[in-house]
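Lab notebook, bench 4. We co-purified these components, and the gel suggests they stay together. Before we commit to crystallization screens, I want a quick structural picture of the whole thing.
Request: model the full complex, all chains together.
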Amino acid sequence: MTQHTSGSGKMVLVLTLIAALSGAILAAWDSYTAPKITYHREQALLVAISQVLPAHDSTRTVVRNGQTFYEAFAGDSLVGVGFQALGNGFQGQIRMMLGMTPDLESITGLEILEQVETPGLGTKIVHDPSQRSEPEWFTNQFNGLLPRPELTVIKNATPTHSNEIQAITGATISSQAVVRILNQQIESARQAFRTGSGVVHG
Amino acid sequence: MAKKQISIWQEIVKGLWRENPVLATLLGLCPTLAVTNTAVNGLAMGLATSFVLLSSSLFISILRHFIPHQVRIASYIVIIAAFVTVADRFLAGFFPVISQSLGPYVPLIVVNCLILGRQEAFSSKNKIGRSLLDGIGMGLGFSLVLIALGMVRELLGSGSIFGITLLGEWFEPWMVMILPPGAFLTLGFFIAIANWINDRRATA
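Here is the predicted assembly.
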């Protein structure tokens, strides 16, 4: 094949055309997929909300002091409040949905929405394949805990107090990260929820 | 081109064994090592890469007479990046669970040297039909090895294949197999076995 050199005019033209064409394809594809991606994200959020909060028959979204809360009602009474907790884990962000009683004193459930921890070690915060009977034991042990004064992590022992959780063997940093994020976010959520006047969204 | 062309069938089959991207030419090892901790991840990464490879081969083969030699790599990368983004958005929109478990490795297909390598070595010099066949063969060869790696690692590391538990309670999972060292170990054995088979064939 002959390799003829071209003028810079042709180079600019061809590269511009290729970039423009690629951009057009992406713009069209994005407008098609973006609603689906948003839909999946919202669905995952709804599933998490219903899992972390006590039995309820309706939920509503309330923004207090700029923070979004998901309130669960059984009939007319408020039975639980859920909110997202976000922070840095071992390798990247951990995003969680935390459910608490309406006074924000006791935890009713925890779900990990997103994480990029080490496969096989840190990912046990979501799913531990070595515990066949209860692979989600890590998040389950948060149920019913009282973060007063705050949650603490203990290693190689069974928790005895109502604010203690057991660290995952081989993933102490991930375990501590989850607890650190929760402690920070519970504190700020308490302030936002108790002092702020709410704006109801749907 | 004066060189005598191989048959159409050979154009596909060469990617499966003789010029297999993972076992023979050792291209595209980053995703090969990174995401094959389960069979499903291997399958998804194999298919996503094959899609990008096939689409890029088609476009670059069509445009091969228009792209100036000096800006060919830049042009290839723009085209490849566009298709990678299409694949990434597709997974996020239709298979959110797989998209989440593959994480940043889908966008990283852009820098998979298998794809750029095939464009530079093949699609930019061959007709559209041949380039598509080459893409199919290479994509298939890449996917099959990734699925096989994923199956071995998932079986030994989690006791299951495609998420179905095969080994009972007695089996203590080899955690190392789903961690990065397990990827190197398994791939090493795969390449050793492939070379052993080739040696036996050569001496037979």
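Chain B has a mean pLDDT of 89. Worth comparing against the SEC data before the next meeting. Chain B touches chain A at residues 1, 37, 63, 66-71, 74-75, 78-79, 81-82, 85-86, 89-90, 92-94, 96, 100, 103, 125, 157-159, 169, 172-173, 175, 178-179 (CB under 8 Å).
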